[in-house]
Amino acid sequence: MIATAAAIATALLALALLLAGFRLLRGPTVADRVLALDTCYVNALALIVVLGVRRGDASSFEVAIVIALLGFVGTVCFAKYLLRGDVIE
User: Fold this and answer.
1) Burial level of 49, CB count in 10 A (0-12/13-18/19+)?
2) What do you get for the CA distance between the two ends of the chain, in Å?
3) pTM metric for this prediction
4) What is the pLDDT of residues 48-76, one digit of tens each?
5) I want to staple 71 with a disulfide (CB 3.0 to 4.6 A). Which of 13, 36, 41, 89 is the partner?
């Protein structure tokens, strides 16, 4: 049961990552692209966790934590750049 659910989740997360990548390339505004990039981070994070569950590999969860941290910091930097025009004050 877990293997079937993980296979379905992998396929759906890959599709979501593909659609978010399309929005990243095609977004009409910069805010849409930042949001699509954040969605790509979240989808990649979930995909790594699901693949770790499928393989039974505990080290993939550590990689997921690093990607979550980088995604959060990147989103905050992009948002600050959009609001103020620079990242460092």
Assistant:
1) buried
2) 52
3) 0.81
4) 999 999 998 888 899 899 989 998 998 88
5) 41
